[in-house]
Amino acid sequence: MASFKPSIMLNPIDGSHCASGEVHVIIGPMFAGKTTALLRRIRSEGNNGRSVAMIKSSKDTRYAIDSVETHDGIKFPCWALPDLTSFRSKLGDDAYEKLDVIGIDEAQFFEDLYDFCCKAADHDGKTVIVAGLDGDYLRRSFGSVLDVIPLAETVTKLSARCELCGKRAFFTLRKTGEKQTELIGGADVYMPVCRQHYVNVNVNGQVVIEAARSVLESHKIQRTNPSLRQIQLFNGCI
Ligand SMILES: [Zn+2]
Hints:
Blueprint: E1 22-28, H1 34-47, E2 52-57, E3 67-69, E4 75-77, E5 79-81, H2 87-91, H3 93-98, E6 101-104, H4 113-123, E7 127-133, E8 154-157, E9 160-161, E10 168-169, E11 171-174, E12 190-193, H5 195-203, H6 205-224, H7 229-235
Parallel strand pairs: 1-7, 1-8, 2-5, 2-6, 6-7
Antiparallel strand pairs: 3-4, 9-10, 11-12
The protein binds zinc ion (ZN).
């Protein structure tokens, strides 16, 4: 992957780095393909001869600790860190200087996201590609992801497919009763939903329970017989 080819331009006047970095942000609900889009972009940059590195939060241990992995099993080596500030010291100054592109997955878990992106893009000339949830399960701003939008050249909001009707889904619904903002989980805890189903299941607790139960049932059946998944999902429609 990383070729570590030096490509940092130096300012001819004072020898400092030229501010030639960029910030790109990929947002959306869970299961929208954010990590897949990030990996595709990082791989493409690597194939173009740029030196790349990927960072994810060490809070998310659902998959391998030393790789970013999509829900459908595609992997890429990464640094799993508690914060972004420690990245440079972990990597080493020389290796950091030679980096061209930094991918950040699950960016909502990094409190120092804004400062890191600012420094990396404005002062160190890095291209930073940030992927994360824009909203939590209550559709409130999650972590610092929205804070970096003013720093970004591009923002891409991806959609998933509503688990209850199949329409485009922009929101993440929590199936369980836990109330904390950060509750790490996959399809057992969360599902992507359209606006109609987000609103319906949140105004009527009974519907939430029924919807969650039917989707949970469909997932159980899916594990034993994937061909039944679609039928079960539509049976679970509300
Ligand atoms: Zn729906």
